[in-house]
Amino acid sequence: MNDVSEPSTKIVLADRSDGLGxxxxxxxxxxxxxxxxGVNYAFTWDHKxxxxxxxxxxxxxxxxxxxxxxxxxxxxDFFELSQxxxxxxxxxxxxEGLKGxxxxxxxxxRRLPTELRRSPPGTYAxxxxxxxxxxxxxxxxxxxxxxxLAERPVAIHLRAGDIxxxxxxxxxxxxxKVVALPVARWLIxxxxxxxxxxxxxxxxxxxxxxxxxxxxxxxxxxxSERFATPIQRALFEITLxxxxxxxxxxxxxxxxxxARIGDFKAKAPRDSLPLExxxxxxxxxxxxxxxxxxxPRLQTAFAAWAAADVLLEQQRWSDALPLLERAVADDPxxxxxxxxxxxxLYRLExxxxxxxxxxxxxxxxxxxxxxxxxxxxAALKETSGKGFTLQSDREIFAEASSRGSEQxxxxxxxxxx
Length: 417
Description:
Blueprint: E1 11-14, H1 20-37, E2 40-43, H2 58-61, H3 64-70, E3 78-80, H4 88-94, E4 100-103, H5 123-129, H6 135-145, E5 154-158, H7 161-164, H8 181-193, E6 198-202, H9 205-211, E7 217-219, H10 220-224, H11 230-242, E8 246-248, H12 253-262, H13 275-286, H14 289-294, H15 297-313, H16 317-330, H17 335-347, H18 351-363, H19 367-381, E9 383-384, E10 387-388, H20 391-402, H21 406-416
Parallel strand pairs: 1-2, 1-4, 3-4, 5-6, 5-8, 6-7
Antiparallel strand pairs: 9-10
């Protein structure tokens, strides 16, 4: 349906435009809320041909009848659930004169009162079955349900994609969505030592290959590869992951939708390994010469950044420096890492060293380093609803400029334009 023609029939709208996991999770939440309220549900589905994402057009994912009943194009006149809701009466009043309610923000659902989020065991599995996927996708889902698994298998989700290899690595908003590779290795060995079978959901083929044929490890990609399309493989793996006894993952919706279907909560790495110990695990791995030979450079760069990020949040600027230097060395095009390294040096008033870091990015004629300059400036100019994303770093550059740093002054000039 291109629009909602009956204003008396309210709708809960799942309105997400990001990855597959978040879209499916939003649809399931809209279905659950609509079921509780006794209204209809719908969803939007803009097609994006994005690398690292399984997002075909809606007609390639859902049946024609299902789309006719539940899709909305160009939605208008919906109340966006962006503020806390007190109760059902509050919900009804908020949507007076409108077509219904929109779940657009990833935090919208959790702002609802408990009575509107209740989900007895089996709720999300039943809702998932109620999504009108096309037959070729349903075949993949059915196949995942027929895989023989050991008792109480442990799923470990090792996302890579755009956060390791794409443009999302040029910012810090997505760092915690990924489990750093050395931490994932620790988790795998931890659960194997406990006598549990690990089902590894690794988006990076090079990493998945390293665990192929290892005892007590099932590589999910080896099971899903028989399906021809990325959307089949993705929904096969979501279904298989939902059958595990527990899921260890970053804050990725792919893992969290599987956890919802399986009636449990996904566990963050820190639930098994505190952040300080994760930093130690990463440092130890990066010091191992075999890691440089074995692991993809962008994986080690991200791991170094992930550990540095923990230390930066604790204002341990000096401790973070070697990790930031490693991140820059392994991902030299990443101007965001250079900004963070220079910012840490400026915070320590090691201005000459910081100037050298930024001069390498701002003045180099090397093609890849010129790209690092563009990325660094884009990171410093990026804004959100709260202002500049790297506001504290901009302030540090301004302070360094006032101390006479030429490169900090140049950065301030370039980012002011």
